[in-house]
Amino acid sequence: MRITDLLPKDEKEKATILVAVVVTTLAAAFFYQGILLHNRTIEGVIHEQQESIAITISNVDHYYFTPCQNRLHSLLLLNPGIGEALYNRDRQGLYRLTLPFYQALLRENLSLYVMHYHLPDGHSFLRMHTPEKFGDDLRQIRPAIQHVHREQKATNCYETGIYGVFYRVIQPVFHQGSYAGAVELGIRVDTVLESLQKQLGSPLATYFLTDHWQGVIADEENIVLGQHLLLTHGDHLFRQLPGNLDLSLREQRFSLDGNSYLLHTFPFFSDFKGELLGGFVVIQEITGALAAKRAFVVRSLLFAAILLVLTLTALHLSFGKLIGKLVSSHSAWERTFDAIGDIVTIMDGNLRIVRANKAAYRVLGVEPGSLIGQHCYRVFADLPAACEGCPGVDTVEQCRVNSAEIHHLKLGKTFLTTTSPVADERGEFTQIVHIAKDITEKLALERQLRQAQKMEAIGNLAGGIAHDFNNILTAIGGYVQLILLEVGRDERIAQNAVQVRAAIKRATDLVNQILTFSRQTEHAKKSIQVAPIIKEALKLLRSSIPVSIELRQSLDSAASIIGDPSQIHQIVMNLVTNAYHSMLEGGGVLGVTLREIVIEAGERRPELAMLPPGRYLRLEVSDTGCGMDRETVAKIFEPYFTTKEIGKGTGLGLAVVHGIVNSHHGIIKVYSEPGQGTIFHVYLPIADCEPDPLPAQEISEPVRGGSEHVLFVDDEENISELAREILTFYGYRVTVCYNGAEAVKSLQAEPDRYDLVVTDLTMPVMNGLQLAAEVKALRPQTPVILCSGHSEITSKAEAVAQGIDLYLQKPLEMTDLARAVRELLDIKTDGAPGSGAKKGGRSHRPSH
């Protein structure tokens, strides 16, 4: 609605408005003249007091410091022996000659703090205030003294130091025309402030440029204001100053506790070079003057208001009510518009923004009002014209609602934009309402969910394959051991069997990598130092790295983490191997660094924002190799993805590293560009405890047999038969069952028949844990060994907690099985090792 639409139309209303305008104009003129008069009065009072303060401060040197200059000059003029003593380095004589003068000066000037003789080489020769301290080199902290040494002329200046601000009176000392050194008097400026404040009658403080201040800025009585340090000297009024004051301004106003003040700044202190160090700050209260001005303003406004009320009562009440409703409606619309959390703009038919809510300015990070008049395609897409598929263009052309996703390059955000047409009372198009909802986080969560689901599916598949493969490896490895036991010393067969066992070991390592990637295997963690593990890994790899590749290492931290040493070793081996493989053709530099970092709350680096605040170790492995493009970087942690030739990589290395880092509650980040090399960063949380001691190396003893009766349960027939042959070889009586139900029947028939039960975990109908529970229910003293290739049902710790006596991980070394059977039987019978044969059984127990 236009203002002209609200104007009255009859003459009476026009006359009423004219009278109101005249009254208001006269009141405004009177008010303006009164304000001018009060302002001139206030300025006069302020100026008069400011001049008085300036005169008093300008005489500080004359009243407080000039007498010291004269006394020191007279001392050297009337006592030539002082120059001779200093020239001859006679400290005792110099002290004796100076002491009467120093004591008299102390009585006259309570502000005197230092009397000090200096040698030309910059060293202290005699402190009258502390004669026992001398010989220290002051060249770095006493520049004024060094200036006098160079120029051999007297100087008087201000200087800041660790003990505060001093006025230095420095005189060169000569003996028979030769320069002997310098003598200085140091007067603490803060000791004269009390007297100066009494003269001024106003609160007084000093300030200094922070670049020249060498004191303790963290002092609670000192305040940092921009580039200046304010020394409050204990004055509570200065300690409450607002933090936005600028001491480079000569005069500024502030309010405190309902009172008004003027802050006067007087630059005064200069060093020996004439450079400004700081000055005085004086507070002048102007509350009374401003109160008189405010009283006048209140009276004037009250008078004007009465006149206006008397005049405007003639206006129609309906007109006032209408205006009130319009204002209220408009205000409510504004509040509603700005309360919307998404970006909302109103645009004309040319897609030019004419209105924007607060969220638009906040999300886009621009100043309020800066969007008005800009085209939406420049704001959201930084394009010179409307982008293809622009919903706004479609809305203008089709006069209907449209939506589209738009990515903002500068902000790195994606918005779901919806445009709706606005029509006038005739139904004709006038404007567009444009709503942009930030869906960046939603899209990222969707991508993370898809990736997590994919990794979970692959992990489950990997776990199942690992279980079956471990059973196969157990059978192969067991029969190889059986061959070795039966062929005796046939060297050719033994060598071939050793090669087979080596192949089994490599296959076992591959299975463990798969399980590590899928995070379905457990590793005991303890407090370990990372740096020694890295050094060991680099030592192993050094011989395989070509001489064309320079290895640089910097391991600056001795911090510990909670982790598995073998897995940390695996991280280093995989990352370093990948690094030098990328430089095989052209050589380069391979860097390995380890250092500590601290992540604060509210970390702004996006790549670290997901980590809790605390101390972390950052392992960096870098190379100057071929690098990777963005598409490759996005896939490198996916299992079985590799850029190497067939036969030269499994694609599991980085997937395994990713799984290990996650299991250690850390993160891994990669930065790479084609032709620029690659950098991996691994962040691991630092432990607050000392590293655990290294375990003592175990000595494997020969396997001993026995004659007890063992029940072996496994649904894999080849493993069951293999176990029967191995345990029979060592003298045991063995009964084999191929499922848990069959084993339970045998146990129920004769509970005391078996001395020990060995069972697989994963079996149809009844798993190993259920079978173990039946065994313990029938005969609690019967020991149970649980074997597993892999399962999500339980872990070693959980199995032991559920009553399992011993847990063995597949693939099994059958000799390890035989050793475990013997040790567990010995423990359960409470006898000496080897004395646990069941009564009536065979006593034959071969060893191997």
Automatic annotation (TrEMBL):
Domain Histidine kinase span(s) in chain numbering: 464-688
Keywords assigned: ATP-binding, Cell membrane, Kinase, Membrane, Nucleotide-binding, Phosphoprotein, Transferase, Transmembrane, Transmembrane helix, Two-component regulatory system
Coiled coil: none
InterPro entries named among the record's database cross-references: CheY-like_superfamily, dCache_3, HATPase_C_sf, HATPase_dom, His_kinase_dom, HisK_dim/P_dom, HisK_dim/P_sf, PAS
Domain Response regulatory intervals: 709-825
GO cellular component terms attached to this protein's record: plasma membrane
Location within or outside the cell: Cell membrane
Catalytic activity, reaction form: ATP + protein L-histidine = ADP + protein N-phospho-L-histidine
SMART domains: HATPase_c (SM00387), HisKA (SM00388), REC (SM00448)
Modified sites of kind 4-aspartylphosphate: 760
EC annotation from Swiss-Prot or TrEMBL: 2.7.13.3
GO MF annotation, one: phosphorelay sensor kinase activity
NCBIfam families: sensory_box
Protein's UniProt name: histidine kinase
